Amino acid sequence: MKHTILFDLDGTLLPMDQDFFTESYFKLLCKKLAPYGYDGKELIAAIWKGTAAMVKNDGKVTNERAFWDTFAALMGERVRADIPLFDDFYRNDFNAARTSCGFAGEAGEIVSSLKERGKTLILASNPIFPLVAHQNRLRWAGVDPESFSYITSYENSSYCKPNPAYYREIAEKCSLDPEDCLMIGNDVREDTAAREIGMDVFLLTPCLIDREGLGFGDCPHGDYADLKKFLQSL
Known about the structure:
Order of helices and strands: EHHHHHEHEHEHEEH
Helix content: 40-55%
Radius of gyration: 18 Å
């Protein structure tokens, strides 16, 4: 019996080709910031380095702090005054990237069903975006952000996937027993890291990512129909 269900977002609740989505997202961000003196190539390069700083974060600061310290070191301290511009982008312009994603009606159905069954739901999307970006992408997927008792974001997280400490931090902040949790995701490396702290994992296969060729091992997996059947057994 699992009382807490954790969901990944990109490629799980929200079908997508990660590279295509990222390209669309960067085009929109560059368009937003060009009038404010940002060179597109420099901006993207700095964002990638800021993202790398979050992925390598060791828990001493929030991911938000890790990103902006790295980004400002590369682009100049003046960029901190533009944080409201970035916030406005994720709140508004970012929504145009919805067209680069797919849609799976089963995702919203599964979330609603689990909520009705009294399960505690957590959005365990890699916390490299601000909260508002995660909330918007949930809406693209046809899922109500209010369905989740906790959503990891760069504001409230100090680790990233595939660091097992990311999952441990969720368990500690939400007072969870890892053995009472099921993580549902589509990235073999990033999402199965939850098993290292005692969580069970189901891998969703329509947008599967397995860059290292790790395979499924003994991890349950399948499409949305298979996931429904698996969840009914809990």
